[in-house]
Specification:
Helix content is about 45%, strand content about 15%. The protein is an alpha/beta fold and about 250 residues long. The chain folds into 2 domains: about 200 residues, Rossmann fold; about 30 residues, no CATH class. Strand 1, helix 1 and strand 2 form a beta-alpha-beta unit. The radius of gyration is 17 Å and the shape is globular. The relative contact order is 0.14. It binds 1,4-dihydronicotinamide adenine dinucleotide. 1,4-dihydronicotinamide adenine dinucleotide binds next to helix 1, strand 2 and helix 6.
Amino acid sequence: MGRFDGRVAVITGAAQGIGAGIARRFAEEGAAVAIFDINEEQAGATAAALGGAAAAIGVGVNVADGASVEAGVARVLEELGGLHIVVNNAGITRDNLLFKMSEQEWDQVIDVHLKGSWLMSKAAQKTFVDQKYGKILNLSSIGAMGNRGQTNYSAAKAGIEGLTKTLALELGPFGVNTNAIAPGFIATDMTDATAVRLGLSIEDFHKANADATPVRRVGHPEDIAAAAAFLCSDEASYITGQILQVDGGFRIH
Ligand code: NAI
């Protein structure tokens, strides 16, 4: 008996990294899973490897495009027979100091993270409200509090925190819980790309981040997946509008 038996979950950007870790955990706990990713081929391969008892599909979706999101959600309702959980995890970085950042780099990051989370939530809300049940989980970041070279990313993540609280207020009366996780350093391709940009080896980059973290290690997708599973489960039904820092204590206030 799993916490997500009979539930259908969409996880965006889950072809790899944190999203793939969340998809694996949800499938292990009984959910039917749809992986929405711009990389359709890898989404299919990751879905096929999940190994849960329920169905898993990979769907090519660009979360920044409203028509693509609508088509993806329609396919889930048709093929998996429902929708109960949406995890807005898809993300990109286009880091640059302000004076070098292009308008395109700003738009791309805001569109994928912030507009994408809004479009997905909007596409799911009709089903959620009609059935008086739904879970929305957004991925923020410790970067929401500001990070050099990331005006676009920090603004997008801070925006996601405001979106999370507002969705909690609007949709709470209809049985929908909306929360966010703000991860610290989680070892994925995204952080590997940052190491390359900074001219550091991946090993040195991990060590520097582990040393700066109270628990003295970097995080892994499984750390986020465990928190995501709790927040999207019925055990957390009295929790909404919250931003949970899962960062090894990196940002304790
Ligand atoms: P990743 O780069 O490993 O994976 C991101 C996934 O999103 C990829 O599969 C990519 O194809 C997909 N994607 C990109 N643009 C898309 C679009 N327009 N539509 C659909 N899919 C798209 O990244 P990672 O590290 O797994 O990050 C996942 C989330 O966690 C992101 O929102 C990120 O900002 C957040 N996060 C990550 C941290 C880290 O240390 N890795 C720290 C804090 C937050």
